[in-house]
């Protein structure tokens, strides 16, 4: 059983999908902490409802990224966190966390990387008029959505898509794929630990 910390910045639909998969015994993990950089984000409410501890911060209250990442790292160590799972966390992970959790930070991104990295990937796909988009799950490195890809799944797009319709399609895939990939990853890593 892996101890995970989920990092989120928004409403937390992927946080919820992971929590549901754990409850349904489809994912062998324990969410020990939600880290959120936006006080007032709905993901915080989701965590509180499930009695999951939260660490909520505002980056502008710190002198540097290193300063708040040191504080986060302390919490992760206290809770013996094995993996950091990013679920709509809108900040680049800095060297402090990257060094301590190398190869153990996973992100989900709403495009078929390397296409459309960074913010508003769905809007980028819509503007580019592509015939398909999708979901990528990847390890995190120092770049913006540049880490090694673990899994991808595509979504066909019609000519009448909107941001909302693409978002709905992407979320349906994310909520299934993320827990499945995490389960595979955690199972493999447990076998490696033996």
From TrEMBL:
One of its GO terms (molecular function) is phosphoribosylglycinamide formyltransferase activity. It catalyses: N(1)-(5-phospho-beta-D-ribosyl)glycinamide + (6R)-10-formyltetrahydrofolate = N(2)-formyl-N(1)-(5-phospho-beta-D-ribosyl)glycinamide + (6S)-5,6,7,8-tetrahydrofolate + H(+). InterPro entries: Formyl_transf_N, Formyl_transf_N_sf, GART, GART_AS. The active site is at 109 (proton donor). Its EC number is 2.1.2.2. SUPFAM superfamilies: Formyltransferase. Residues 2-182 form the Formyl transferase N-terminal domain. Gene3D superfamilies: Formyl transferase, N-terminal domain. N(1)-(5-phospho-beta-D-ribosyl)glycinamide binds at residues 12-14. The keyword Transferase applies. Pathway: Purine metabolism; IMP biosynthesis via de novo pathway; N(2)-formyl-N(1)-(5-phospho-D-ribosyl)glycinamide from N(1)-(5-phospho-D-ribosyl)glycinamide (10-formyl THF route): step 1/1. The record marks 145 as: Raises pKa of active site His. Belongs to the GART family. This is Phosphoribosylglycinamide formyltransferase. It comes from Cytobacillus eiseniae.
